[in-house]
Amino acid sequence: MSIKVIRPGLNTTFQDRGRSNFYHIGIPFSGAMDTRNFLITNKLVGNDLNDAVLEFALQGPKLKINENNINCVVTGNVDFTVKKNSKIYKGDCYKTFSLNTDDEIDIISTNNSMYGYFAISGGFKLEKKWNSYSTHLKSKLGPNNGNKIIEHDNLQLNRNQKPVNKKEINYVNSKIEFIRVIKGTNFDYFSSKSHKSFLDSQYQVTNLTDRMGMRLEGDKLENIKSENIKSEGLIKGAIQVPPDGKPIIMLSDHGTIGGYPKIAVIISADYDKIVQLPPLSKIKFKMIDIKDAEKIFRLYSMETKNILDQI
Asked: How confident is the model at residue 161 (pLDDT cuts 50, 70, 90)?
């Protein structure tokens, strides 16, 4: 049982929820960029919530099926088509569908967003690397020898042992006016003017964005203490400011240590939203305290659970 890759897409990798407890040797969590969409994807096809899925960025893969009755789903804000018996049909996200031998799925592009997901009932036949299916490209760690999916790859499938039930959910990828942050460990390294600029001005996502980080364009932030610090641990969502004064947001494949001051950290509940912003998107930040961030995360977790319970 397999799927042949006709076109790999721009950045298609296997991902699960991530790889924990390896920061001390320089390996970040990695994992699906948009956690909620990842969980919805697995739930729709009846898989374990931490099973591997294909994550793609901007342009997705084109795949040819080599097995009958494969139950699939695509999630995210994604345009895709299905070719069956030489006829092409427009696909619907968040709605499972069946593919058979010689059918094709063409994941054309994400729509005003960055990441989408593809999964099949029963999952892909993979071996965990250091207790995870996630691919970390810099360290060549994960399935497929730690590499992206490439043309002519044959993706092996598990045989689904469970009854296939058609499922769908009416889910809208929400957006918010502000990306909420808490103070970073080096917030006081920056001038009062920079604090005001950071919160009052608008930043733009540049093309220098990938799974490691997101560089922003906008008002330069003035460091009044030291442009470099002793390297210390990083977490995803941390906003570093290098000597040029232009913020960089650490994303899922970020380096585990860094020597640039950190002005703020994006709250966990808003991380799914920030990673989905494509280049040229505008961002405004809003500072909140850690107690409010914890309350918002509890609400985010409850809302995610409620969505999954409906599937």
From this structure: low
| 311: helix, strand or coil | coil
Residue of 223, 297, 209 lying closest to 262 (CA atoms):
223
Q: What is the pLDDT of residue 24?
A: 86
The pTM of this model reads 0.94
Strands 285-287 and 179-183: parallel
How far is residue 283 from each of residues 28, 59, 225, measured CA to CA in Å? 25, 23, 26
Domain edges within the chain: 2-156, 179-309
Residue 308 has pLDDT above 90, yes or no: yes
Give dist(CA 49, CA 72) in Å, integer.
15
CA 190/CA 263 separation, integer angstroms: 7
On whether the CB atoms of residues 154 and 8 are closer than 8 A, the answer is: no
C-alpha 89/C-alpha 80 separation (Å) is 9
Distance from C-alpha of 31 to C-alpha of 50, rounded to nearest angstrom: 10
3-class state of residue 38 by DSSP: helix
Measure the CA–CA gap between 218 and 182, rounded to whole angstroms. Answer: 20
Whose CA is closest to 202, among 265, 247, 262, 267?
Answer: 247
The bridge status of strand 78-84 relative to strand 87-90 is antiparallel
pLDDT at 105 over 90: yes
CA pair distance 64, 88, nearest whole angstrom: 13
In the chain the first and final C-alpha atoms are separated, in Å, by 27
Q: What is the mean pLDDT of the chain?
A: 94
For the cut 70, the answer to whether the pLDDT of residue 190 exceeds it is yes
Question: What tokens does 177 get?
Answer: 């006016």
Q: Name the architecture of domain 179-309.
A: Beta Barrel (2.40)
The SS3 assignment for 70 reads strand
